[in-house]
Amino acid sequence: MIEDFENESYKNNESSEQPQNENTAYMPVYPMEAKTTYYTGKTLNNVKENTQNAKTMWQSLGVLFMLILMVGCAIWGYNGWLATEKIENQPYVILSNFSRDVIDHANTSVVSVFASSTAGTSAGSGVCYKQSGGYMYIITNHHVIEDCNTFYVTTADAPQTQISATLIGTDKQSDIAVLRIREVNGIEVSTLKSSYEYNLAENVFTIGNPLGTLTHTFSNGYISNTSVRSVVSESGVQQELISVNMNINSGNSGGPLFNADGDIIGIVNSKVASSIVTSGGSTSVNVVEGICFAIPCSTVYDVVQEIEQSYATYGGMGYVTGRTNAGVTVGYSVFGHSVMISSVDETSDAAGLVSARQTIEQITLERPSEEGVYETIYYLNVAEETEVDASTLALYCNIIFQSAQVNDKITLLVKDSTAVQAKEVVIEYTTQYVYQIPTNY
């Protein structure tokens, strides 16, 4: 009896480790040491029932674990989706890196721009914003193509291949020019935004042609101020620009300002290289780093639309309605309480009214209102500006001339070198200015 009980006991031990199955053949178990084991109050049926209960318990725990895992994954997925929505719906979120696909596409839409004449070659950057009718259209800066009559571009995948380009229109006031080339492989189109909400510290980048030799060079930075800044160029043109903290150099002009989505949100056109500071009778030059400017995309979009619409008139050159040829350029010389005219464009409305070497003592720009009443836009009395240096005075005058629009009038108080008293001269602007490619180069 003891021997039989022991054999039954070993079988019960085996069933507790491996649940029984009708098709399972048991191997005999031989203990290493003869031992009597007592299961007080338990029969074979009790052990089977407990084993089934244990199995059910573990199955329930497994199901519970899977449910917890599924709920956790659902919460994690929702949070990930929510974070993505926040990035997409809040463009001011700072992104430390730009998508590889975005950069690659942007790079294929950028071209290096070269403009030349017998006097030399100008180099800059450009971006393809449109493809239509077998042509591709490229934006660059006016100052890149100014006074030139031959234009070509190169692409990222073929930097040694010169692609001939045609100037279809340009605008000095906004510093925007549009070139056109035949459709070619290797150039993609980037989206030009018609408007954009700039956000402080928003990451942006540009790809351009710094120094005219380092083609397709990437630079990144961020929007350093959301306000549109009034900036005056060396030529006296006043522009409203976006401030960007970015390293750019000569040759980056005309390059696109991209956002994190690869959209064109501006055109890079200038930087502050140095600042002249006058204090206590002494003058010093401060070197400036990281302050560059871009033309807002809303301005770019409007100018480009006008250039496209007016193209094929005025000898096949696009223009912006209402622009005038300033006609008068003021030099940096100051004589007493006046500044001197350095040149007068003989094709402008000012021709025959004033001449070079006359001095200006007072200047007023007036513009008609909707009711036809002239209102003063600018007024400058040179004699009153005793604390302003000669170069700044000349810049003020050139800003006024460059700001004139069709139907405006400028009243000057000028004097010849031999005259005793200044005379009043009124320049009425009536001629729509359209840029003409120079033929004397």
Tags for this model:
34% strand; single chain; elongated; 441 residues; 3 domains; 6-stranded antiparallel beta barrel; disordered N terminus; alpha+beta; 6-stranded antiparallel sheet; 6 helices; Thrombin, subunit H
The CATH topology label of the largest domain is: Thrombin, subunit H
Distance from first to last alpha carbon? 125 Å
- The radius of gyration computed from the alpha-carbon positions, rounded to a whole number of angstroms, is 39 Å
Helix content: 10-25%
Proportion in β-strands: 25-35%
Give the strand line-up of the largest sheet.
Answer: 1-2-3-6-5-4
**Shape-level CATH architecture of the largest domain:** Beta Barrel
**What is the number of helices?**
6
The CATH class of the largest domain is: Mainly Beta
The count of domains is: 3
Main sheet specs: 6 strands, antiparallel, barrel
What number is the mean pLDDT? 83
Write down how many β-strands occur, each being a DSSP E stretch of 2 or more residues: 20
Helix-strand pattern, N to C?
A: HHHEEEHEEEEEEEEEEEHEEEEHEE
- Tell me the structural class: alpha+beta
Point out poorly predicted stretches.
1-47, 91-95
Molecular shape: elongated
Structural commentary:
By secondary structure, the chain is α+β, with helices and mostly antiparallel strands. The chain has three domains: 1-89, no CATH class; 94-319, Thrombin, subunit H; 328-428, no CATH class. It is built from six helices and 20 strands. It has helices spanning 2-17, 44-89, 100-109, 142-145, 297-310, 390-402; strands at residues 110-117, 120-132, 135-140, 150-154, 163-171, 176-182, 203-208, 217-232, 238-245, 256-258, 264-271, 274-279, 282-287, 292-296, 328-335, 338-344, 359-368, 374-381, 409-415, 423-428. Strands 1-2-3-6-5-4 form a six-stranded antiparallel β-barrel. It has a six-stranded antiparallel beta sheet with strand order 7-8-9-14-11-10. Strand 5 and strand 6 (176-182) form a beta hairpin. The protein starts with a helix and ends in a 13-residue tail after the last strand. The relative contact order is 0.10. Mean pLDDT is 83; it is low at 1-47 and 91-95.
